[in-house]
Design brief:
By secondary structure, this protein is of the alpha/beta class. The chain has 4 helices and 5 strands. InterPro entries: Thioredoxin, Thioredoxin-like_sf, Thioredoxin_CS, Thioredoxin_domain.
Length: 105
Amino acid sequence: MLQAVTDADFAERVLTSDKPVLVEFWATWCGPCRMVGPVLERLADEHPEIGIVKMDLDANQVTATRYQVMAAPTMLLFHHGEVVKMIVGAKPKAALERELFTPVA
């Protein structure tokens, strides 16, 4: 199971991480979030070079607002405290791997 991050520990666990961290902004009422969750769990197991955590939108509105998260699921990839990629919507594993692990030209 992916670890949860909150408004209170977001900076410590995401922004100051020495490796890239993918944050899934999700909600209990979100059907596509339930579809992408297991995909992210597999990616976390297969790619230890990045951290993958989840953040409940309803319970952590400060962080979601700060990063202008408007839809669930939204995934933000942070590296050195900065957003380097945004992925909106549920995607299959192959599509997420392409987006996360293909270098930007």
